[in-house]
What we know:
single chain, mainly alpha, 7 helices, 73% helix
Amino acid sequence: MHPRYGRRLPLTHDQGVLLSHTSWGLPAVTIVAAMVIHFFDSPRAVPFFISEVDERGVQDAVFTIGLSIAGVAQMLYAWHLYHTVDAQRPKLWFIATLVGLVAALNSILVSQFDTYDYVEEHVLTAMLAFGGGVLWSLLSTVALGSKATVAGHRLRNIGFAMAAIGFVVMLAAFQPVANNFDATGMSTTEFLNQAQEGVVIAAPAEYVLVAGLLLCLSSFRHELLSADRPEN
């Protein structure tokens, strides 16, 4: 194995696998739970963006706490993967890890900056989380190269394709509609109501994007399981 920057986390092999499940399982449960609560709590419209569930109430607590913890788990997981899994291109593997850390950090921030009170901060952190996640997946796939497992590589290809297509469709569907009117002085709810024609396509695309990113995260479990158990 090539020399690594920094120090490895003091995790056993089994703890690393548990962290792997947490990195994608917790955000998946969090998002689904918050969306279900929002759906039965008089949503603005259906379909809706995931960030719309970050309203005051139980759904806000579920969304913010769940994604904050999940973001921390993803940062730890990215660092643990870097030190545990060998890659064909070590330098690119390190760069991919840094991108993953940035994406995970913005997953935390996007849950703190809700779209109703901090719309500009929310959009910026969401783009960094989504875009960073897609880039992390792409760079990791290239960095691992021939050292990737067949199952992990296949899942990452599927997840990356889902995330990339979802990202492009979301922007392509929403931006032209949003640019067709002057949003000055509008609240987030008023703005989204005006842009619902675009949300109808962009929201499902966002669901595909997030599902793709979570699939990419889950794919690394195969590399983790095939790696040598680290010394404790």
